[in-house]
Amino acid sequence: MTGLETTAPALDARSIAPEGAVGPVPRTYHVRTLGCQMNVHDSEHMAGLLERAGYLRVEDVPAAAARATPAGDGGADVVIINTCSVRENAATRLFGNLGQLAAVKRERPGMQIAVAGCLAQQMGEGIVERAPWVDVVFGTHNLDVLPALLERARHNEAAAVELEESLKVFPSTLPTRRESAYAAWVSIAVGCNNTCTFCIVPSLRGKQRDRRPGEVLAEVEAVAAQGAIEVTLLGQNVNSYGVGFGDRGAFAGLLRAAGAVEGIERVRFTSPHPAAFTDDVIEAMASTPAVMPSLHMPLQSGSDRILRAMRRSYRSERFLGILDRVRAAMPEAAITTDIIVGFPGETEEDFAATLEVVEKARFASAFTFEYSPRPGTPAADLEPVPVEVVKDRYRRLDELVRRITHEENAAQEGRIVEVLVAEGEGRRDSATARVSGRAADNRLVHLALPAGLAADDYDGGAPRPGDMVTVRVTHGAPHNLIADSALCGRALSPEELAANNSRAAGDRVWYDEGPALFEVRRTRAGDAWERRRAEACATPESDAAPVSIGMPTIRIGAPDRGGMSALGQPRSI
């Protein structure tokens, strides 16, 4: 290890100006993120570090973005692939991507390729051995050295590989370029103390380390001051939060405190573990208006025998009991889950138990996976279930999950919901004259604009990303909700009705018999999104714009808590 420091002056990220250009040309970057929300947030830190070092996002440099290729390089000078190693095909996918980028690099002088994340932590030098055109490899424990590694690789004209065995710098203290102006990830812990036999995450991200409550709340207050109205608290096992500093009730307290931060309207969290999920968390969710009625509760298997083999320290009865108590406290709650099919030793009886639990649980949606052996995990050495059996079980589970999801979505028809409008949630919005976002329960909602209102006519009343819209759900689709209430309230002619019914389901307007409803509430978050858009369209200054820090000091004017957080913990900023 080199002991590279991140407190040094920003690196010079300027490249040689092309012929005819005036002045140096900023080097550009593009981050491709694979995997979980932790990886998404890590990528935001990478972007923040690079911008502090003088790099620019390739999307903000049209001349660079114009040279993008199908290889996924974005046209950038520096391409970072932030990898995941949870699935068996992760390495195959990575080296396929790297092979495509090699051809781009040969045609783009000065281009650098970096590999980060869990697979980088796992494979290390092996990545460079298989793909010698890679310039930088760094792991989950040393995000802070990315700019220095890029500079070292360029100076030495050799690959720079750096992997710390444990966390040296807590990621939330690093600069952050948040992808969203209206919603923010806030990490409360990194690592995991569980020993699930199928999971490689603890060996790659280490033991759980908790941030102090004061630090978490300082970040929540800071993102609120910048315009965000939604925060998601992140951790591998959020409801074990506080064990590291001796407060087993800390997570419930943190939920209440985050929900009380001025300007924050929505608080979410992911992911909890059924074994550590306690009733005080349910009470905090139900009694704190800003904490949303949505819960992702990983089941993994409905068979107690398989749960035991997985070292999941709960059983199906406890799992279903948690769901019952959550719904008793919050009848409107939407609960999602993860399920693994074909864990070694799974019998047809075990699988039937999973189907039974899924039927009883009535999940709003489920992420289903075929078991994938990961080298270095205890389950990897067990006798696998035959592939054809796994695939058949996966198909049957998927059919059940799809049916229940559709039924649960159909049950939402007629509900009045407030939707936080988002960017990129609706791929067909432009074709269907809709905008998209998330309801309080985190269901995806596509909502029709009033007739004649263009999606980008913000002065005319169109909601901006970050604004709230109150609508009525007019159709529960298989994977989402459709709220076309803006177009309701009038009788259709037979010709109009026939023309509408002839369209594909996704293109059809879903009328109901209620009145028109489309109420836009402008928010600070929408203002923040509009400011960011205006800044992106402005001519870049010679120096990079300031980048927010993940763990900032409390803003001037914040309520004085006498040096204590809302949880009664000292602030250690």
UniProtKB/TrEMBL annotation:
**What does this gene product do?**
Catalyzes the methylthiolation of N6-(dimethylallyl)adenosine (i(6)A), leading to the formation of 2-methylthio-N6-(dimethylallyl)adenosine (ms(2)i(6)A) at position 37 in tRNAs that read codons beginning with uridine.
Question: For the Radical SAM core domain, which residue ranges apply?
Answer: 178-407
Catalysis performed (reactions): N(6)-dimethylallyladenosine(37) in tRNA + (sulfur carrier)-SH + AH2 + 2 S-adenosyl-L-methionine = 2-methylsulfanyl-N(6)-dimethylallyladenosine(37) in tRNA + (sulfur carrier)-H + 5'-deoxyadenosine + L-methionine + A + S-adenosyl-L-homocysteine + 2 H(+)
What organism is recorded for this protein? Actinomyces slackii
Ranges annotated as spanning the membrane: none
**Assigned EC number:** 2.8.4.3
Q: What is this protein called?
A: tRNA-2-methylthio-N(6)-dimethylallyladenosine synthase
* Region of interest called Disordered, as start-end residue ranges on this chain: 552-573
Q: Which SMART domains match?
A: Elp3
Family the entry assigns: Belongs to the methylthiotransferase family. MiaB subfamily.
